[in-house]
Amino acid sequence: MTTYNNQSKLLAAVDCIIFGFDGLHLKILLIKRGFEPALGQWSLMGGFIKKNEDLDEAATRILKKLTGLEGIYLEQLHAFGQPGRDPIDRTISVAYFALIDIHQYEKQLSNDYHPEWFNLNEIPKLIFDHTLMVEAAKEKLRYKAAMHPILFELLPNKFTLPQLQTLYEEIYSASLDKRNFSRKILSTGLLIRQKEKDKINSRRGAYYYKLDKGKYEKKFQSFLNIIPNSHKLR
Question: Are residues 183 and 121 in the same domain?
């Protein structure tokens, strides 16, 4: 049997970074680690890859086992392999990330590993290099939010401009001027105003809008004008 001589053995793992939006805040899902080292500390959803599965299969399996979540599109982010990142053995981890509507998946969550949603500005101390993974995922999320209509998938079928502004502010960690945001977003011509108004969260009532996804695909550059420091994303 042919083998690779004089080569060191490495462990391979995956870690899942799940962002969620609840209508007001952008959050991240964390669990209590179930084994040593760092037993009971806050962690991303991670585990080792089995010999008979590929990376995507491992990520899907581990996420479901630790949180109960399934049917989520996970995108590969980056491989993390600093020699000392795991104190027990040399381990390379491939990180995945996803962005979901919290309300859509809240009934799936299992309590086995105490999954909990945290606001992005209130993340507790994480094990190993998981904070580094989260920061990399946040940058990737901002880039994708500029290039693709993924933000609108977190909103109801019809939404108000204040709801849309809140989501953009959460993604980019920036305050946006209300009038300027409304002017720029409406000038794109990509939102379709509805007849109904939201009178629950606004005394005067805020009109509902829908995204014209067909136009968005053709003219997504129009949205770059409302994104803070959008020139950095190009």
Answer: no
Q: How many domains does the chain have?
A: 2
Q: Please give the residue range of the domain that contains residue 157.
A: 152-233
Taking Cα atoms as reference points, which of 174, 194, 191, 170 lies closest to residue 182? 191
Looking at 147, 173, 192, the residue that finishes a domain is 147
Q: How far apart are CA 197 and CA 207, in angstroms?
A: 4
CA angle 8, 12, 14 (to 5 degrees): 160
Residue 202 has pLDDT above 70, yes or no: no
Express each pLDDT in 19-66 by its tens digit. 999 888 999 999 999 889 999 999 999 999 999 999 999 999 999 999
Top mean pLDDT of 75-79, 139-143, 149-153, 158-162 is at 75-79
Its pTM stands at 0.86
Alpha-helical runs (H) found in the chain: 55-67, 102-105, 130-147, 161-172, 178-187, 213-219
